[in-house]
Amino acid sequence: MYSRVLLKLSGEVLSGEGERGFASERTRFLIEELRPVVEKGIQLAIVIGAGNIIRGRELSEMRSSRADELGILGTIMNSLYLKESLCMNGFEAIAISSIAGIPSLLEHRYDTIEDALNTGKIVVFGGGTYLPFFTTDTAAAVRAVEIGADVLIKGTKVDGVYDKDPKTNEDARRIERTTFSEAIKSRFEIMDVEAFSICQRYCLPVRVIDFFSKGSLFDAIIGGKTGTVVLPD
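RE: above sequence
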């Protein structure tokens, strides 16, 4: 069982697949998925994307740096929404970011983050890496290493990594375990190469799960066979 976890989530967990904004039923589902994890005493940090607010492909005519800045702001909005939703449902949580002077956000300071995790608070990171040209996958890898997480769990819409697209190939096979090198060689669409490089360098395992499947997060944390595990070489 993992004791400290970094959970990477798409903004769609707050809206529903392909939807925009915030949907109360999706937020309730998220809250109930986190509840047994926190009650078990697992230290939890979350990196949230912004897919429910803004999507990069819609800004293709804009300079990449400017489009990324808008995405960064979207993740900050989601971090504040998630933090407040957690607090309203009985959790203790803080939102962290160093790029927006908003009273509800705490400065990105290691002591603040460590104290929060050690006292059972959920830490929600907004703002990605705070730099353009890097994905929230890379941000999740960086934050996981910073907090000394045992694992980076990526919550997706698919129950793991497949050898081919399961949506178009009936014979697609789910891979239970693989390595970073094999994942890069086989071009498995799990995380970007920058994120993989960080995880490989710091021997941080990654677990890919279908977050929309009830109970998958808790099962992955306690050592179940949910999803795919990607291990350092």
